[in-house]
């Protein structure tokens, strides 16, 4: 098979069979269905460190995939599928964790600001600029 690129949802358990990419040694690039939503969420995170970490984590699959074994038989099976599954779980875990930390910082800031400013000013003019996009990633409460 000559599959070089695929687009998949950012959903844990999406790849259910280890042999799904068997013999697809040309598979070297994965795109995410939620690419734009993920990009918007990352851009809204408070810390540059988080943004850079997420960009690195998302891009890592396209660095790892070219050298992952495609698998040709039952002995060496599932290399690319396993790598993609682990990558999806890792990206989901990180974005959910960073969103939770972002919301904790936002709530702390709101509490502090509400001591000094009227609630309507804080809610309408400050917090609205720090909110994350309303998309919920798998694994969030």
What this model shows, in words?
Helix 2 (48-64) runs antiparallel to helix 3 (79-116) and helix 3 (79-116) runs antiparallel to helix 4 (119-130). The radius of gyration is 19 Å and the shape is elongated. It contains 4 helices and 2 strands. It has helices at 35-44, 48-64, 79-116, 119-130, and strands at 5-8, 29-32. 55% of the residues lie in helices and 6% in strands. Strands 1-2 form a two-stranded parallel sheet. The protein starts with a strand and ends in an 11-residue tail after the last helix. It is mainly α and 141 residues long. The mean pLDDT is 85. The longest helix is centred in the last third of the chain and has 38 residues, at 79-116.
Number of strands: 2
Total count of helical runs of at least 4 residues: 4
SSE pattern: EEHHHH
Low-confidence stretches: none
Q: Strand portion, in percent?
A: 5-15%
Report the C-alpha radius of gyration, rounded. 19 Å
What oligomeric state best describes the polypeptide chains here?
Answer: single chain
Quote the average pLDDT: 85
- Helix and strand content put the structural class at mainly alpha
Major sheet strand order: 1-2
Q: In this structure, how is the largest beta sheet organized?
A: 2 strands, parallel
* Separation of the first and last Cα atoms: 40 Å
Q: How helix-rich are the residues, as a percent range?
A: 40-55%
Global shape: elongated
């Amino acid at each position: 098979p000559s599959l070089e690129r695929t687009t998949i949802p950012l959903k844990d358990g999406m790849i259910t069979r280890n042999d799904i990419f068997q013999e697809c040694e040309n598979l070297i690039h994965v795109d995410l269905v939620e690419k734009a939503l993920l990009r918007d969420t990352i851009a809204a995170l408070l810390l540059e460190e988080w943004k850079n970490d997420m960009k690195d984590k998302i891009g890592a699959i396209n660095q790892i995939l070219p050298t992952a074994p495609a698998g040709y038989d039952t002995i060496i099976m599932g290399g690319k599928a396993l790598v993609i599954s682990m990558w999806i779980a890792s990206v989901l875990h990180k974005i959910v964790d960073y969103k939770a930390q972002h919301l904790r910082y936002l709530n702390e800031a709101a509490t502090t600001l509400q001591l000094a400013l009227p609630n309507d000013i804080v809610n309408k003019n400050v917090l609205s600029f720090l909110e994350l996009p309303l998309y919920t990633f798998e694994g969030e409460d």
